[in-house]
């Protein structure tokens, strides 16, 4: 076997391993959204309060990510990944057995989110530090798409476990996912010292990173992408559950199963979108996708009273547009950031994205409350409109910069 073939084979094995670990660690993202309707009734939550608990997950991520992603410039990202998965499992166990309302629920969601901050981008750093720079971006596209695959699987698992054991034991059992991810990476991936580790800081300097115009554009693009993505995922199960109550025919899927299907159908769009970006130009592709998703959010929200199969089809199409620029944005950042500043760039990228992810579910819930409540179809249309407006604005500005 030639050296290049051996290197390609090693890249494939490493990518599959990290994608598997990422899928296992995504269970925390479904812990609250899967049971939002049930917990809203149990804890007497308003739409804004439910959105606050959902957003607290991303707040924890936002607070922790500068430290955890930045730390990968100093220590092996593998260590950060493993320890953060353990933290995520702890947060899920706390949510299962100690959460009893708004503030305790938000606290343990924030702990789980802080754990994810040391898993998603540091996991990408595990790949980036072990794959040759000239290997292209396909491995990055597969890794980023695994985020959604993991979320889809987590929704299915949460629904099945919830029906069998109740929400508390379901969340506790789902905490096994991050534990398995930590064990897999710790035992199967060797240590690699990051480049220029002796020069890096524990808390990254964002100034040098922001000096790159391309990085600034990608960071802001990722922020509006995550606003839309995490706002949608936080409320998708509840939206489908309400839509099912308006359907004249009996739906063939439970709300969690339908949400998992919607999420899963969006994942090929991330990989294929990155391929399209390589053909038509990354900037041009991202702008077009942002325009499409900014329009589709209104159409999907307005379909809440449609037959269940049509609602599911429109939600799936909307999610395709949401995901079609995901890998392109991340691959663009990895290749635009200087290697010695890669950890700082990823930290800033995640800070912007998950900071937006913190606010989006809260704004969505507030829009529901102000427009008539969760039992009003028009309120859901308005709330969905809050998801994609930022994409339209970003696309207009980015189009002018090209």
TrEMBL record:
Its main location: membrane. Keywords: Cell membrane, Membrane, Transmembrane, Transmembrane helix. It comes from Methyloversatilis universalis (strain ATCC BAA-1314 / DSM 25237 / JCM 13912 / CCUG 52030 / FAM5). The chain crosses the membrane at residues 12-32, 52-72, 79-100, 106-128, 140-161, 167-187, 289-310, 316-334, 346-366, 378-397. GO terms for molecular function: transmembrane transporter activity. The keyword Lipoprotein does not apply. This is Major facilitator superfamily MFS_1. One of its GO terms (cellular component) is plasma membrane. It is a multi-pass membrane protein. Residues 14-402 form the Major facilitator superfamily (MFS) profile domain. It is found in: Cell membrane. InterPro entries: MFS (IPR011701), MFS_dom (IPR020846), MFS_Efflux_Transporters (IPR050189), MFS_trans_sf (IPR036259). It comes from the Bacteria.
């Amino acid at each position: 076997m030639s050296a290049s073939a051996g290197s390609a084979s090693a890249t494939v094995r490493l990518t599959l391993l990290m994608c598997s670990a990422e899928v296992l660690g995504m269970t925390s993202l479904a812990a609250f959204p899967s049971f939002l309707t049930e917990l809203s009734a149990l804890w007497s939550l308003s739409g804004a309060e439910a959105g606050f608990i959902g957003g607290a997950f991303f707040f924890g991520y936002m607070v922790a990510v500068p430290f955890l992603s930045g730390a990968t410039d100093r220590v092996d990202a593998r260590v950060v990944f493993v320890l953060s998965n353990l933290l995520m499992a702890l947060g899920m166990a706390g949510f299962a057995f100690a959460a009893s309302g708004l503030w305790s629920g938000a606290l343990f969601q924030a702990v789980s989110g802080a754990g994810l901050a040391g898993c998603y981008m540091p996991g990408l750093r595990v790949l980036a530090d072990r794959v040759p720079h000239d290997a292209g971006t396909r491995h990055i596209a597969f890794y980023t798409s695994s985020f959604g695959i993991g979320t889809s699987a987590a929704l299915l698992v949460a629904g099945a476990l919830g029906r069998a054991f109740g929400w508390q034991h379901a969340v506790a059992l789902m905490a096994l996912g991050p534990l398995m991810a930590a064990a897999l990476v710790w035992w199967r991936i060797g240590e690699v010292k990051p480049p220029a580790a002796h020069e890096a800081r524990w808390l990254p300097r964002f100034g040098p990173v922001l000096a790159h115009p391309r990085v600034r554009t990608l960071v802001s693009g990722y922020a509006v992408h995550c606003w839309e993505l995490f706002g949608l995922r936080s409320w998708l199960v509840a939206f489908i559950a309400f839509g099912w109550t308006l359907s004249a025919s009996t739906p063939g899927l439970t709300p969690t199963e339908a949400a998992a299907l919607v999420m899963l159908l969006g994942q090929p769009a991330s990989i294929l979108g990155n391929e399209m970006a390589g053909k038509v130009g990354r900037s041009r592709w991202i702008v077009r996708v942002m325009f499409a998703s900014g329009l589709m959010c209104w159409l999907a929200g307005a379909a809440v009273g449609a037959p269940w199969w049509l609602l599911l089809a429109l939600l799936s199409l909307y999610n395709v547009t949401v995901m079609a620029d995901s890998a392109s944005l991340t691959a663009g950042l990895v290749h635009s950031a200087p290697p010695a500043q890669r950890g700082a760039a990823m930290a800033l990228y995640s800070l912007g994205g998950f900071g937006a992810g913190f606010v989006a579910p809260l704004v969505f819930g507030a829009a529901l409350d102000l427009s008539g409540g969760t039992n009003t179809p028009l309120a859901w249309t308005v709330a969905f409109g809050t998801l994609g407006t930022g994409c339209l604005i970003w696309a207009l500005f980015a189009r002018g910069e090209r």
